[in-house]
Amino acid sequence: MTGQAAPESKVDRRRDAERTRADILDVATEEFANRGYSGARVDEIAARTRTTKRMIYYYFEGKEQLYLAVLERAYAEIRAAERAVDVDHLDPVAAVRRIAEVTFDHHEAHPAFIKLVGVENAQQAEHMTHVARLVDLNSSAVDVLRGVLDRGQRDGAFRTDVDALDIHMMISAYCCFRVANRHTFKALFGRDLLDPTTRQHYRTMLAEMVVGYLGQR
């Protein structure tokens, strides 16, 4: 006597939907990063996720909404990593170093994020302005850095004429350049910026650069 299969529960259906949505976002991230917004094809994303264009539109309504979801998730991941740093238990210098290192590690591990930033800049942030949550996500990360700078300034460890957004820019610029310009830099100078043998050198270099700039003059 064969038993009947248990009916699928609402929890199971929700988990399946979450997995499907996550799979679509994973593939869409690669597609938009490698082909840009205009070059990306929803049909290709559907084929690679073994789903259908109709199903993608069910979850995301359209290509633009899918692209915006990709952008939002990409920024949410880096900002979550930055906010997770336990800076309150570190002295200001160590805290700034740690924030820089976390950004360095994340950008290296997520080259698609760097490509997406480039795609959106090429379009003058045309789509990003439609995602109000991105402002809150990025502001919260800068707030963490601002708190560390305030402590360092009160302690006399940091100069007082610095701005948290400038330090954020300095860290981001270094980390983005290293990943985004890897191939052109190697073609021009014969050096691979992502060579594992020089990784720690560049990671330390970033931290020293930021801490050196923040130091009292």
UniProtKB/TrEMBL annotation:
<keyword id="KW-0238">DNA-binding</keyword>
<dbReference type="InterPro" id="IPR041474">
    <property type="entry name" value="NicS_C"/>
</dbReference>
<dbReference type="InterPro" id="IPR036271">
    <property type="entry name" value="Tet_transcr_reg_TetR-rel_C_sf"/>
</dbReference>
<feature type="DNA-binding region" description="H-T-H motif">
    <location>
        <begin position="41"/>
        <end position="60"/>
    </location>
</feature>
<dbReference type="Pfam" id="PF17938">
    <property type="entry name" value="TetR_C_29"/>
</dbReference>
<dbReference type="Pfam" id="PF00440">
    <property type="entry name" value="TetR_N"/>
</dbReference>
<feature type="domain" description="HTH tetR-type">
    <location>
        <begin position="18"/>
        <end position="78"/>
    </location>
</feature>
<protein>
    <submittedName>
        <fullName>TetR family transcriptional regulator</fullName>
    </submittedName>
</protein>
<dbReference type="InterPro" id="IPR050109">
    <property type="entry name" value="HTH-type_TetR-like_transc_reg"/>
</dbReference>
<dbReference type="InterPro" id="IPR001647">
    <property type="entry name" value="HTH_TetR"/>
</dbReference>
<dbReference type="InterPro" id="IPR009057">
    <property type="entry name" value="Homeodomain-like_sf"/>
</dbReference>
